Amino acid sequence: MCGIIGINSNKPVSSTIISSLKKLEYRGYDSAGIATLSNGLINEVKSEGRVDNLEKNNLVQNMEGTIGIGHVRWATHGIPNSINAHPHSSQNVSVVHNGIIENSTILKKFLVGKGHKFKSQTDTEVIVHLITEHLKSENVINSIKKTLKLLHGSFALGIIFKEQPDLMIGARRGSPLAVGYGPGENYLGSDSYALKSMTNKISYLNDGEFCIIKKDQVEFYDEDGKKINKKVLELTSEDQKYDKGDYKHFMAKEIEEQPLTLKNGINEYIDNSNKNINIYNFPWKVEDITSIKLIGCGTAYHSCLMAKYWFEQLTSLDVNVDIASEFRYRNHRFKEKTLYIFVSQSGETADTYAALDLCKKNGMKTCSVVNIIESSIARDSEFVLPIHCGTEIGVASTKAFLGQILILYIFALKLGLLRKDIENEVFLQKLNDLKSLPELVEKTLKIDNKIQAISNTFNEAKGSMFLGRGFSYPIALEGALKLKELSYVHAEGYPAGEMKHGPLALIEEGMPVVVLAPRDSYYKKTISNMQEVIARGAKVLLITNKSKDEVLSENIWETIEVESANEDLLPFLLTIPLQKLAYYSALKKGYDIDKPRNLAKSVTVE
Ligand code: F6R
Prior knowledge:
Number of helices: 20
Oligomer: single chain
Largest sheet: 8 strands, antiparallel
Shape: globular
Bound molecules: fructose -6-phosphate
């Protein structure tokens, strides 16, 4: 997704902007650009494709200027090409923008009527012309204030001005924006990760705020233009140096890091000496919560679905799950005794944030399960349960998924105990079982060879299906999502029991179907469903757990066995072969595994 960098310094900035843009590459983008001020002029260079293309441009290599802005663009309005890439500039002003200006068509009409000429197909260009128009009669600050008032939709902006060589403006509504502080220079960034290589001192803009960034000073203003003070936060150094190591891709590394993710989560929340779960400073009485609503997007939504099974099994709470982009526009009966839980790796997903905002405005109890604790969702939730999985760079979420479901499982266990929905003995047994989970995942990770061979069949197929029942159903959805996003193979996740109600018509001779049938309480039912697809010609890859009992079915194409564990923990283990299947499929096709086409790591537009 789009990313912003801005630097106001006393030394040349172009090469630092380029290296910071590279830090934003993980977000997924299709073009890049940079603008600096030198000799009283705005210099702008843009290119389609990777930041490398931009860097190779001679104009960038010789670019002067001690103030500048850079951008990686993920196309929303207008095709990905160098004209639509940001920055967009007039003679007086240059702008980079994340987000969407919803009333750009009307604004453009108005500006064209005033004689403004547009070069691109983007919504962003209206911002450039509006500021330019206002600058005819106003000073810089008033031009910005007036422009921001006219914009509908979401934005994070970085702006520089020809006539103001020592001043950069940042503004935020809906899309996140951070300010960084360095010696003799200050920065603007769409996330703190991009700024981490330059500084660990950060402030975040809240919705409606804007800031003036000078070399030696930053001023913040609220929506009404009133000066405000901001806290300067010190970032932790834990994930400052995250790299691929000896792995070919971040995704491969992140899959292998999952035992560590689980160990970190367990160490953080489980108190071994007191045999308890520590959830500090929980702000509500458990009696005041009678239902739970879990909300997320994509993989995080699958974590929510997974958690529903555990919450229903371990507590007597009412549990509902929603996709954030659907939740935010529906009519809700908000209930005082519902706890709203927002799940997000990045903590910046626009739809999830909007759902959180809606709940807050309606006075609801809000809690988030996030990886990035400095993120907007974490900062604006009343209570945060961090997942502690470290930086995740691969666009396809892997370790964050296991981190999310671990924390949700731990939370369900704790609420079950506090509400007296489960016996203390059961609680202690499950807590004890959980301790062996990192090791079980570590052993399951060794199943590589077989999966590499199997992945060819999926690559060659027209489409594939992933089936599971109960605890395995959300994992089937997640497996299908991983395969489609990485190897661009059509993959459909389905509850196995639902096949007869329509999807069975898709099954034809040789179609690869993954059946998740661990030896849990759904096992026999799933095996029956598996036989139904085998009878119609499907090539079934059965994923189950190790057992002394043979699987009673004929004509299974391939079987993969994960380690055995108590029923609650099997979903963690089933996830591993599915992640690897998607990884090897994409690897064989030579696709860009860490940055699949059309996708972004942090989806900051709705
Ligand atoms: C898929 C994937 C996405 C994200 C979704 C939400 O592999 O990564 O589906 O899960 O965009 O992102 P977060 O968790 O950052 O809110």
